[in-house]
Design a protein that fits this description.
Two copies of one chain form a homodimer. Chain A folds into two domains: about 1-95, Pseudouridine synthase I, catalytic domain, N-terminal subdomain (Alpha-Beta Plaits), CATH 3.30.70; about 105-244, Pseudouridine synthase I, catalytic domain, C-terminal subdomain (Alpha-Beta Plaits). In chain A, about 20% of the residues lie in helices and about 30% in strands. Chain A has five helices and ten strands. In chain A, strands 1, 2, 3, 4, 5, 6, 7, 8, 9 and 10 form a ten-stranded mixed sheet that branches. Chain A is globular. The two termini of chain A are about 20 Å apart. The interface between A and B is medium-sized, with 19 and 19 residues.
């Protein structure tokens, strides 16, 4: 049995997230249809994570198995020829038969992009959050360091999360300005439902003064969603990389 | 009489170019409607240039006159509130009554973006040309220097151009690689119909070997459209700045 690992980039705007659903177009559905066309058979696809409606990916990872032994570059080329243009297979690799993109993931990196200018950017409408109020990126970078470590992140989990434990380890977290763009990056062993978007929303609330500087440790400790900030919109969020 | 100068950014994808037309949505039409809503009167808009269907702008310039004396920041804010999101007023300034965005322009800078990777970029589908074959940006940068100077650019003018003289001065021209993106920039006192796109297409034909290295001077001298290269697609082109 061949086990193929794919790395995908996609613009999440036109999709109802990664996961297959009845009556809605999803990335997994499009990829499943494309694999069926190329391989001539239905294959189950295992995704590293679920991304929500409107969330993008620069390096989503998934795998599927098939008896058919094909050249990896030809698979990538063939899938890209039949996939919608907003989804692209960046890489295809053969991996060990036991590899599972979801259960073997050791960590993930997410990026959140904020267009921080008085004026909107017509080229980034669905690709970055437009935040017209000035952001003190250096200050938020210092605040973001309080996310690093192993914590119970219940305060940063939206209702609807289904995990047994809310303890996660954040390896690194930063906020950086590049011109009018403010870029939030976070790397961790796993993330709760809406966790990254609430982390970003909390930083924006600290920027506006709605939440006090230095209070991230006590928000974490509270384990209460009510003490954290808003949930930043989906369209600024990118799943950037999955580590194995 | 007040004369207002606007600097615009727009994503040209959904529009049939700048210039007003019957039965087609154009940027000028959208701006005209927005000004009418904000000023309560129809105003004639003078654009620095016409951009074609699908061409973008990072710094398009235009002006319009009105008896009504309004605060410039409020005009920009008001127009942005009623314009489609894909068009943004970046700046609004009061200028002398005689200023005309078209006739007073002393030069323009265009940018052409090429996504030069085997794989398409789902985030740049209508924003950059996807060219999967490797580009030697350093070589093309040397070739592009041959465009600089005052020349008859008839070989770089599509049929349908209506100018009296085809002599233009190119002040600067360069090709630069930034990761997988190859960026062509050209600054000149004016440009013929499709001139920038043919300049880029000719460089791509030099890259592929279809046109010989070092032949730009003789292509210019030929004054024949047939000796130049292809017309690169509209969606990689940006009007970046207009100089007065």
């Amino acid at each position: 049995m061949n086990n193929y690992k794919l790395i995908l980039a996609y613009d999440g705007t036109p999709y109802h997230g990664w996961q297959m659903q009845d009556n809605a177009i999803t990335i997994q559905q499009c990829l499943s249809d494309a694999i069926e066309r190329i391989f001539g058979e239905k294959c189950t696809i295992y995704g590293s994570s679920r991304t929500d409606k409107g969330v993008h990916a620069e390096g989503f990872c998934c795998n599927f198995r098939s008896e058919k032994d094909r050249d990896c570059e030809k698979i990538a080329y063939g899938l890209n020829a039949v996939l919608p243009e907003s989804i692209c297979v960046l890489e295809c690799h053969k991996v060990g038969e036991d590899f599972n993109a979801r259960f073997d993931a050791r960590g993930k990196q997410y990026t959140y992009k904020i267009w921080n200018s008085r004026r909107r950017n017509p080229f980034l409408l669905d690709k970055a959050l437009h935040h017209p109020v000035p952001i003190d990126a250096q200050m938020l970078n210092e605040q973001a360091k309080d996310y690093i470590g192993t914590h119970d992140f219940s305060a940063f989990c939206a209702a609807g999360g289904t995990t047994v434990s809310n303890v996660r380890t954040i390896f690194d977290c930063s906020v950086e300005r590049q011109g009018d763009m403010v870029i939030f990056k976070v790397k961790g062993d796993g993330f709760l439902y809406n966790m990254v978007r609430i982390m970003v929303g909390t930083l924006l609330d600290i920027n506006s003064g709605k939440i006090q500087k230095g209070s991230i440790p006590e928000i974490i400790e509270s384990r209460s969603r009510l003490s954290a900030g808003i949930t930043a919109k989906a369209h600024g969020l990118y799943l950037s990389e999955v580590y194995y």
